[in-house]
Amino acid sequence: MIKVTRIGHATFETPDLQRAIDYYTQVTGLVLAQREKNRAFLATKLGDLVVQLEQGSQSRCARISFQVAPETEFDSIRRGLERQGVHGQTRNDPCPGISRMMTFEDPKGTLLELFTTAEPVGKNLPAVGIGPLKLGHLAFCVDDPKSFADFYGRVLGFRVSDWIEDWFVFMRCGPDHHTVNFVRGKSTKIHHIAFELKDWAQVQVACDFLGQKNISIIWGPGRHGPGHNIFTYHRNPDDHIVELFTELDKMMDESLGYFDPRPWHRDRPQVPKVWDSKSPRDIWGLPPSRDYLRQRD
Ligand SMILES: [Fe+2]
């Protein structure tokens, strides 16, 4: 079975490439590692490729890359996919830092790109704006979260960390509580992209920075129940929700089956579970705004 170990980068199509580059470089605090006529590659200040932008007719998340263990043979990835009835295609030199990928579509048509090794596209690059440590997770609105949980589990080795009733699933591929989420929505599209910040102090600086830029915070700060991360959400110029978070739950030892204990956990030990949306599921913080909630419409 294929076992994804971490997320690589997300590729977004945008009708206004320069506007999107300006947002990711001047607000998110990514660095423009490479620019072509219709494409741009953005890295964290640590040099990891995390966002690829492409000129397109609409705003959408078109592709996501995931890393599998570096020693994995490409042929074994192909065979692993075929055993699950999925046909993969090899792409050579798809983007800076990655020389080979195996690609295939998930059930909603997002192209998934598997790679074994990636070189940083820069090192300790100067960044302006928020400056996240890494790309944390992507969440999508889908009609049937259960079928996506089954596909990502069966084909890519993801595990379920939590459900909120039967309409929101959080899935992990490494220690982080979630790397992909699926929430029931009226249309199939991205729900949010999330970047990890170093600590609570950086979240506060980020909120002040967004305030200075007159960018509304549409939910948060608060501390979630599922994942227990400190969160804030805002919208980017492509109308995608961007989450900035820190202190996400980690399961450092899969064999123990519980998340590393934290003082804010209500359950001891904190194991994967189904949360009830009728009782307050966030540990603290006000409910989301209408601007956040409209993403599932
Ligand atoms: Fe999130």
Task: Describe what is shown at a glance.
This protein has 297 residues and is an alpha/beta fold. The protein has 2 domains: 4-115, 2,3-Dihydroxybiphenyl 1,2-Dioxygenase, domain 1 (Roll), CATH 3.10.180; 134-296, 2,3-Dihydroxybiphenyl 1,2-Dioxygenase, domain 1.
Please explain how this structure is put together.
- 17% of the residues lie in helices and 38% in strands.
- With 297 residues, the chain is an alpha/beta fold.
- It has two domains: 4-115, 2,3-Dihydroxybiphenyl 1,2-Dioxygenase, domain 1 (Roll), CATH 3.10.180; 134-296, 2,3-Dihydroxybiphenyl 1,2-Dioxygenase, domain 1.
- It has a nine-stranded mixed β-sheet with strand order 14-15-16-13-9-12-11-10-17. Strands 2-3-4-1-5-8-7-6 form an eight-stranded mixed β-sheet, with helices on one face.
- A hairpin with a 7-residue loop joins β11 and β12.
- The structure holds fe (ii) ion (FE2).
- The site of fe (ii) ion has 5 residues, from β9 and β13.
Residues in β-strands, percent: 35-45%
- Mean pLDDT across all residues, rounded? 96
Order of helices and strands: EHEEEEHEEEEHEEEEHEEEEH
Bound molecules: fe (ii) ion
Broad structural category: alpha/beta
The number of distinct β-strands equals 17
CATH class of the largest domain: Alpha Beta
pLDDT below 50 for ≥5 consecutive residues: which ranges?
none
Q: So what's the overall shape?
A: globular
| Number of spatially distinct domains | 2
Relative helix content: 10-25%
List keywords for this structure.
2,3-Dihydroxybiphenyl 1,2-Dioxygenase, domain 1; eight-stranded mixed beta sheet; 17 strands; 2 domains; binds fe (ii) ion; single chain; alpha/beta; 5 helices; 297 residues; nine-stranded mixed beta sheet
